[in-house]
Structure formats: C-alpha cells, structure tokens
Amino acid sequence: MSCNVVWLFLERGKTMVDIVPMVMCKTNEFWQKQVVGSKGSVYTVTFDALSHKRHDVVCDFSCTCQAYKFGKKYCKHIEAVKGDRCGWHQQFDGGEAINGKCPQCGGEIVGIVVGV
Known about the structure:
The chain is α+β, with helices and mostly antiparallel strands.
C-alpha cells in the first residue's frame, strides 16, 4: 500500500484548474533503519502504510521492540531516528529533483499528481 494518497475536494460550483505532476522523496512511502537498543538488541524502525498501529493516518512509524508493540506512543527507538527520514515533498517543501534524485537526501523520488 502506498502512502501517496491524494484526495481532491472541491467546493460546489468550483472547478479544478489543473493537475500538476510533482515528485517527492521515496521516504514518504517507505523508510527503514536499524537501531541498537540499550541492551544490544537490534530493532527495525519503519515508516510506511502497513506496519504502524495508528488508524488516523496513512503512513507512520513503527518499531519491532516490545515497548512499541504494547505501548500507546512512539518508543525511544523511533524517537531516536525519526529525524533521519528525509520526507521531502515538492508541493510542500518546494524545489526540484536533481538528476532524478531527491534534492535533500539524494535518494529515490516518486512521481505524484496534485490538483490545483
């Protein structure tokens, strides 16, 4: 499942002017990082649409540790690495892809369409 969900809402009587192709960093759809816990165990922190337990968002972080599995909030492993995910999105952050790569992290990009 992709996090790249676009809902277009128009007021009654209004029309959409254009559909604009844009790009975003692939880390908006999927990202993973290994984290070594305080006792040496290795956990995987993931950002995607399938692994997390929140029902109010499409994509979110998850972790393979027990604290995340049984807790209600982010565990310390997620908190430690969530800032490492790029998350660049042309519509919100501006800029252009550089040689087909994300301008912030140099990673893969994915195409999207935005109604304006």
